[in-house]
């Protein structure tokens, strides 16, 4: 059941050249990105990589134009100043600078929860029923069409930013107002009652699933990044159930055009049905983050994980330099 981890593609840190660890930025997830970035920077430097911190895309542009870096380790989170919406990937592609993780399409699609769900549904992959909310839409009619309880969230944010769980119609307006404070469209989604899982993706393998058990009722921003009493059970399932959720996550990741590394979030109801929630193309690398926990289960420590993610910026075998 344990996935087979391939050998490292590169063993000489000099092969990476000078690396920009891109962190911070101006998205709603800036502080999480800075935390992730500091950890990644320290891990790469400990392995002998010539890595340096760069805060935000404008600073990176200046550095790349001046040819100060050979590749980019992207640990920006979010969109609109984050590095998960395809803008950074397009920039690097235009300048001919390799970058870790997904390309333009996978990054842009993965950042947009509505369009990711549209792709998944077109392929018959399971995801909670939803309604796309435009400005002025009747949110009460939308909630009735799905049936309470529902989740209201921005379509293009992460880290549980702007998310509300709504159990009573009277709370709908406040939930919509909170989500509308962020750029982009809104998404109203059927709330799946059950266990919350996540599956890390590294290269072509799905790492062991993690079942997330917060001390409170929900796995919100506090439980993700601040609380010390959230439980992470890894692997989250056993036998065929574990194999099934990992296979589903890998299929969902590929369907969204993603590559390199990432994380797929899944809800599992009491009947054992899995429902895809979203893809993260630049997951957190903080002390509370999930991909490092899953990697540790297959013997990949944090420093090695950062090295392997950096390897995703290397040309694929058989491809040109």
From TrEMBL:
Which parts of the sequence bind Mg(2+) 2? 278, 280
Q: What class of enzyme is it?
A: ligase
This protein's UniProt keywords: ATP-binding, Cell shape, Cell wall biogenesis/degradation, Cytoplasm, Ligase, Magnesium, Manganese, Metal-binding, Nucleotide-binding, Peptidoglycan synthesis
Subcellular location field: Cytoplasm
Q: In which pathway does it act?
A: Cell wall biogenesis; peptidoglycan biosynthesis
Which residues participate directly in catalysis? 29, 159, 289
Give the UniProt entry's GO cellular component terms. Answer: cytosol
Q: How is the cofactor bound?
A: Binds 2 magnesium or manganese ions per subunit.
Supply the InterPro entries for this chain: ATP-grasp, ATP_grasp_subdomain_1, D-Ala_lig_Van_CS, D_ala_D_ala, Dala_Dala_lig_C, PreATP-grasp_dom_sf
The EC number on file is 6.3.2.4
Catalysis performed (reactions):
2 D-alanine + ATP = D-alanyl-D-alanine + ADP + phosphate + H(+)
Q: Which cofactor does it need?
A: Mg(2+); Mn(2+)
Query: What GO biological process terms are annotated to this protein in UniProt?
Result: cell wall organization; peptidoglycan biosynthetic process; regulation of cell shape
Pfam assignment, any one: Dala_Dala_lig_C
Q: Which ranges carry the ATP-grasp domain?
A: 117-311
Which GO terms label this protein's molecular function in UniProt?
A: ATP binding; D-alanine-D-alanine ligase activity; metal ion binding
Q: What is this protein called?
A: D-alanine--D-alanine ligase
Species the sequence originates in:
Arenimonas malthae CC-JY-1
